[in-house]
Amino acid sequence: MSRRPAELAAAVLALFAAAFAAGAGARTSDRNQPMDIEAAHSTCSLGANDSCTLTGNVTMTQGSLSIVAAKAIIEQSGGDPSRALLSGGVTLRQTLDDGNQINATASNIDYDLKTEVVVFTGNVEIRQLRGTLNGQRVVYNMKTNQVESGGSGNGRVKMRILPKSAQAKPAQAQPAPAKGSN
């Protein structure tokens, strides 16, 4: 992989990570860290409207941010990154500024840099301290900070929102009753 495609991939993925994470309260210092990307294979074109494809256990780390996918396609338009497509069981993990973690999994993530819309599809689960969001499709508009989610077919969106008081104290396990006692 020549230096230019590697820089393109790193720039797009760093932008994706920083922009998406910024809306979620991600660790601010992560944006100032280098991004390390590894993959089994890459194919990158040098044209202004071409793409870079990374395959085979693609891993990206930047500070506390960690992204793993089977495949990443970085598209550019007019020489600038325009879209990042991550597929094949994507996991995203990052520590927020308050020290808590956000974890997300989906079959695919499609990030359009022009519209600033991130679309998670396929068995989406987003977990953080205050709760979880599950569905087949979650759309996050970074410009408006709006989240839209839906199930597929008869599927439903599932959310669990914990009260603030539950954040301070982890749930205590109750001891099992002694055998033979009523």
Provide structural commentary.
- The chain has about 180 residues and is mainly beta.
- The chain has a single domain, classed as Lipopolysaccharide (LPS) transport protein A like domain (lipopolysaccharide transport protein A fold, Sandwich).
- Helix content is about 15%, strand content about 50%.
- It has helices spanning about 5-25, 165-170; strands spanning about 35-40, 40-45, 50-60, 65-75, 80-95, 100-110, 115-130, 130-140, 145-150, 160.
- Strands 1, 2, 3, 4, 5, 6, 7, 8, 9 and 10 form a ten-stranded antiparallel sheet that branches.
- A hairpin with a 2-residue loop joins β7 and β8 (about 130-140).
- The protein is globular and about 50 Å long.
- The protein starts with a helix and ends in a 14-residue tail after the last helix.
